[in-house]
Amino acid sequence: MTRLLNKYEGNPVVSPADVPGGGAMQVFNPGAIKLNGEYLLLMDVADLSACYHFRLARSRDGYAFTVDDQPVDWPPSDPDFEEQNRYDPRITKIGDSWYIMFAARNDRLGVRTGLVSTRDFVHFERHPNCSELNNRNGVLFPEKIGGLYARLDRPMGNPHVDPANIWISYSPDLVFWGRTKPVLQVRPGEFWDAQKVGAGAVPIRTPQGWLEIYHGVEKTCNGFIYRLGVCLLDLEDPSKVIARGRNCVLWPEHGYEDVGRSGTTVFTCNALLEEDGETVKIYYGAADRCIGLAEGKLSDLLAACYT
Amino acid sequence: MTRLLNKYEGNPVVSPADVPGGGAMQVFNPGAIKLNGEYLLLMDVADLSACYHFRLARSRDGYAFTVDDQPVDWPPSDPDFEEQNRYDPRITKIGDSWYIMFAARNDRLGVRTGLVSTRDFVHFERHPNCSELNNRNGVLFPEKIGGLYARLDRPMGNPHVDPANIWISYSPDLVFWGRTKPVLQVRPGEFWDAQKVGAGAVPIRTPQGWLEIYHGVEKTCNGFIYRLGVCLLDLEDPSKVIARGRNCVLWPEHGYEDVGRSGTTVFTCNALLEEDGETVKIYYGAADRCIGLAEGKLSDLLAACYT
């Protein structure tokens, strides 16, 4: 049994101290893309009030990152829901636009799935929030399926008690959503994904199906452990799970993954497929405090769905 | 200060013993309409397994009801979500169809808002479920607003801890829903509606606005108390609350309202406006066990929104 994802020896690739100004407590759970040959991480950054903004880190080689001086120019709230916090962006390219799905939080009412788009990561455009209340980890598929946009998400009950599962919804226009149905459930038993499962990376299209790298949660007497695993969804009907790996593929094991705002946590909003069509880079949140890089092969991750 | 809603002296109007066969533990929270001169109550009926089906009670005068021998011929589940239980129907007439919004429950995954229509209360047609997970008390407005169908509902967190509020969503086609936003929140303080508020009756159109009779919950050390109150929503933009009564208009006070499956509870899914345009009949669930009737005047309920 070999390790499928290798962690970069220089991890973490971004830490709070890398944020100019010294006012960041945590940087984590970025969306990750390549734009004009540059790696861009759109990161959760917690200031000293523990409020989140999005900020970019940039790299030419994918390993050495520089954090922007300022947050991105985030657009005003959807007028239907005042957004006091935002986090966990997933970035999906459709046509010439990048769509950012994220958790939009009103501190009194709760959290929903927000949507913002950009063409250049300089100017950002607000769209109506997508989900109802108490639903996050929204991930937009990179193409229409059956003529409709599709998103995975994770509706919540009480986050500390109820299991949380991956669901799917469809939309003709990114405004009205429906045909909502469950996709992947927590695994019965004492597995690593027995307490919660949620969509992670933007699904990668392969001839075998949509590869989805998802997070699974184990609940212990001392709290939650977040790990990553893989499943394969049907290309035509992504509510159908073709295969689901028994084993997790990334887990906390080092200090920077074990201790932080939320310890024993690795979590991803991205899986970046390189131009070779085989190398996958995952810029993962480590303990809700910094960002690590793990690299592997698409073919290995696909095979892992069947183990 | 006079009482706005008078309870019928012959209450309850329907009890479990009225259900033919003797196998009903509870009958409550009906939708209520008039069809061809007949009052129809579409009721939650709990059998001895505590599973719910819908059954009709009929009356010529609105006071003496006879319960059908059999449940209604309820259509199979939405294939996207196996419905093992269903309850709390709200019945809205649009055109020639009656649309029934209700709580559709899968015992493993949770509860959503279901939708079934009928033209005759004999044949029923299934539509896709409307809401995401953990959302019930869906109430469809009786006309399109700004060219869109509209529903009130109550997304939930943990039902025993989190406050629950009234929200609204819109749809071009009853399949895809969006423009979701909050409408009415729990009242800060120790009021009768400080813990939860949820849509109750199908809104009644008046020149002053949509009259909505909603339920409010007070949380005590011994459990919840459910009461009914009134608010007025803007005709063009029903997410705007024009007025909200300070006082509840119906509350538990008698034995059949105080003791049952869920004691100290009055709850409604209906408010039936008679042909005189003034008399309102509310067939309310009492303690989740039987059905009471309360009568009042539309003008009084409207005025109560401003007290």
DSSP strand content of chain A: over 45%
Strand elements of chain A, count: 22
End-to-end separation of chain A in angstroms reads 11 Å
Name the CATH architecture of chain A. Answer: 5 Propeller
**Average of the residue pLDDT scores of chain A:** 96
Which regions of chain A have little confidence, pLDDT < 50, spanning 5+ residues? none
Order of helices and strands of chain A: EEEEEEEEEEEEEEEEEEHEEEEH
Q: Using the coordinates above, name the CATH class of chain A.
A: Mainly Beta
* Basic shape of chain A: globular
The DSSP helix count of chain A reads 2
**How would a crystallographer describe the biggest sheet of chain A?**
5 strands, antiparallel
**CATH homologous superfamily name of chain A?**
Glycosyl hydrolase domain, family 43
**Domain module count of chain A:** 1
User: Oligomerization state of this entry?
Assistant: homodimer
Helix content of chain A: under 10%
Instruction: Find the structural class of chain A using helix and strand composition.
Output: mainly beta
Reported by name, the CATH topology of chain A is Tachylectin-2, Chain A
- The radius of gyration computed from the alpha-carbon positions of chain A, rounded to a whole number of angstroms, is 18 Å
Q: Can you tell me about this structure?
A:
Two copies of one chain form a homodimer. Chain A has 307 residues and is mainly beta. Chain A has a single domain, classed as Glycosyl hydrolase domain, family 43 (Tachylectin-2, Chain A, 5 Propeller), CATH 2.115.10.20. Chain A has two helices and 22 strands. The first copy, chain A, has helices spanning 255-258, 298-304, and strands at 6-7, 26-35, 38-46, 52-59, 66-67, 85-94, 97-106, 110-118, 124-127, 135-140, 149-155, 166-171, 176-184, 196-199, 204-206, 209-220, 223-233, 241-244, 266-267, 272-273, 279-286, 290-297. In chain A, the strands form five sheets. In chain A, strands 1, 19, 20, 21 and 22 form a five-stranded antiparallel sheet that branches. In chain A, strands 14, 15, 16, 17 and 18 form a five-stranded antiparallel sheet that branches. The relative contact order of chain A is 0.15. The mean pLDDT of chain A is 96. Chain A binds chain B through residues 80-81, 108-110, 112, 128-135, 155-158, 161-162, 165, 167, 169-172, 175-182, 185, 239, and chain B through 80-81, 108-110, 112, 128-135, 155-158, 161-162, 165, 167, 169-172, 175-182, 185, 239. Strand 13 (176-184) of chain A pairs antiparallel with strand 13 of chain B.
